[in-house]
Amino acid sequence: MLSKSIETALNKQIRIEAESSQVYLAMAVWAEVKGLEGISNFMYDQSDEEREHMLKLVKFVNERGGHAHISELNAPNVTFNSFQEMFKKLLEHEVFVSESINELVHISLQEKDYATHNFLQWYVAEQIEEEAVARTILDKINMIGDDKGGLYLFDRDIQQLTVSSAAQTPGAGI
Ligand code: OFO
């Protein structure tokens, strides 16, 4: 059985994962409108993954006798000045989510809720991977800068990045 404070903290994370899905959906749409299909597909996949992260939490809360709370969401940023800015925001967002997961882990230990602590380890590992991919992408984008040809090639390569990371980690895209 979940304590009230753990239930509240997990429900806060449900909202963050749902908002993450919207954040990446907005990025997917922006990239699609700008004609960069590879980046757009990458973001659509990422958005789907975030929804899965949310659902995993929803199921966990309900299975442990809590009540998953589906709340209203903050609107995401829908336009960007550049792809560089968009990927910078992607990394910042992942760092923010990692901090939130760390805080949850901390609360679960304080409450001696080892089942929740164990459940959260999957999220800890996922965040390490997502931050690493976001950093790699941002490094590449920073090198490309405003070069249109470079961006075109990157748009093609990012599809391989999604496919190859998915091949390494079944079920996980970025
Ligand atoms: Fe939910 O994994 Fe990133 O944010």
Task: Give an overview of the whole structure.
It is built from 5 helices and no strands. With 174 residues, the chain is mainly alpha-helical. Helix 1 (4-33) runs antiparallel to helix 2 (37-63), helix 2 runs parallel beside helix 5 and helix 3 (83-110) runs antiparallel to helix 4 (114-144). It has helices at 4-33, 37-63, 83-110, 114-144, 148-168. Helices cover 79% and strands 0% of the residues. It has one domain (4-71, 80-160): Ferritin, core subunit, four-helix bundle (Ferritin, Up-down Bundle). Bound molecules: hydroxy diiron-OXO moiety (OFO). Residues 17, 20, 50, 53, 94, 97, 126, 130 line the site of hydroxy diiron-OXO moiety (OFO).
Question: How is the secondary structure organized here?
Answer:
Layout: H1 4-33, H2 37-63, H3 83-110, H4 114-144, H5 148-168
Helix pairs in contact: 1-2, 1-3, 2-5, 3-4, 4-5
The structure holds hydroxy diiron-OXO moiety.
Compact summary:
This protein is 79% helix and 0% strand.
Count of spatially separate domains: 1
The CATH class is identified as Mainly Alpha
Bound molecules: hydroxy diiron-OXO moiety
Helix content: over 70%
Based on the structure given, which CATH architecture is correct?
Up-down Bundle
Secondary-structure content class: mainly alpha
CATH topology: Ferritin
What's the overall average pLDDT, rounded? 93
Q: Low-confidence parts lasting 5 or more residues at pLDDT below 50?
A: 170-174
CATH H-level superfamily title? Ferritin, core subunit, four-helix bundle
Head-to-tail CA distance between termini: 33 Å
Choose one word for the global shape.
elongated
* Radius of gyration (Å): 17 Å
Secondary-structure element series:
HHHHH
Query: What is the count of helical runs?
Result: 5
Tell me the number of strands. 0
